[in-house]
Amino acid sequence: DQQVKQNSPSLSVQEGRISILNCDYTNSMFDYFLWYKKYPAEGPTFLISISSIKDKNEDGRFTVFLNKSAKHLSLHIVPSQPGDSAVYFCAASKGFQKLVFGTGTRLLVSP
Amino acid sequence: DSGVTQTPKHLITATGQRVTLRCSPRSGDLSVYWYQQSLDQGLQFLIQYYNGEERAKGNILERFSAQQFPDLHSELNLSSLELGDSALYFCASSASGTATDTQYFGPGTRLTVL
């Protein structure tokens, strides 16, 4: 049972444009959501998070939006840079930190 | 560099064998987590330890076991290995293991079972 879904395995964007990565979840008990970025041969790196009491969180070029009624979150990267090319995982948790990860979206930002 | 170290980086073994993966958390972190990433899959949570005690358990097979030692390093033991156990195994650590604590991931151990 895949509780966190990233339906787009890949996304290609031009440098300077906006990248939008999407994530859907099925468990309404999730109360904390995160995005991780992963480069090849490295472990995932924390990017940004959002609590279920908020609907938006911003950190520089990265903004995460949470729509609880739709059980949907998205990560916006503006402007996109070639160095953003990586696999992005969304994750969710409830209570203690048992993170449930999506399968990832590979972002390619071309110059 | 996250500060989390994992050894070995690569491991190739045969079915039926037993292996041990090792993780050293970031300095000061008390909680350690283990994840498995199979081909084209997300990271699957296996188990969490906090200061030597098991705190949460995920989809960890009975053939797998883990522990966290007094110096806070952790080991994941995989036995009676099967082809399907081939995967990337990540360790992560966090300061207190609470819900909003950031988890810092190591580079992973790639296990290949032949």
Q: Please, could you describe this protein's structure?
A:
With 111 residues, chain A is mostly beta strands. Chain A has no helices and 11 strands. In chain A, the strands form 2 sheets. In chain A, strands 2, 4, 5, 9, 10 and 11 form a 6-stranded mixed sheet that branches. In chain A, strands 1-3-8-7-6 form a 5-stranded antiparallel sheet, with no helix packed on it. The radius of gyration of chain A is 13 Å and the shape is globular. The mean pLDDT of chain A is 94. Chain B has 114 residues and is mainly β. Chain B is built from no helices and 11 strands. Chain B has strands spanning 5-7, 10-13, 19-24, 31-37, 43-50, 53-57, 64-68, 74-78, 87-94, 104-105, 109-113. In chain B, strands 2, 4, 5, 6, 9, 10 and 11 form a 7-stranded mixed sheet that branches. Chain B is globular and about 35 Å long. Chain B starts with a strand and ends with a strand. In chain B, 39% of the residues are buried. Classes of the chains: A mainly beta (111), B mainly beta (114). The interface between A and B is medium-sized, with 26 and 30 residues.
Give the tags.
heterodimer; A: 111 residues; mainly beta; 6-stranded mixed sheet; 5-stranded antiparallel sheet; 11 strands; 0% helix; globular; B: 114 residues; 7-stranded mixed sheet; 4-stranded antiparallel sheet
Oligomer: heterodimer
Quote the distance from N terminus to C terminus of chain A: 38 Å
Main sheet properties of chain A: 6 strands, mixed
What gap, in angstroms, lies between the N and C termini of chain B? 31 Å
Figure out the total of helices of chain B.
0
- Our Rg estimate of chain A from Cα atoms comes to 13 Å
Mean pLDDT across all amino acids of chain A: 94
How much is the average pLDDT of chain B?
Answer: 94
SSE ordering of chain B: EEEEEEEEEEE
What's the SSE blueprint?
The complex is a heterodimer of chains A (111) and B (114).
Chain A: E1 4-5, E2 10-14, E3 19-25, E4 32-38, E5 45-51, E6 56-59, E7 62-67, E8 72-77, E9 86-93, E10 100-101, E11 105-110
Parallel strand pairs in A: 2-11
Antiparallel strand pairs in A: 1-3, 3-8, 4-5, 4-9, 6-7, 7-8, 9-10, 9-11
Chain B: E1 5-7, E2 10-13, E3 19-24, E4 31-37, E5 43-50, E6 53-57, E7 64-68, E8 74-78, E9 87-94, E10 104-105, E11 109-113
Parallel strand pairs in B: 2-11
Antiparallel strand pairs in B: 1-3, 3-8, 4-5, 4-9, 5-6, 7-8, 9-10, 9-11
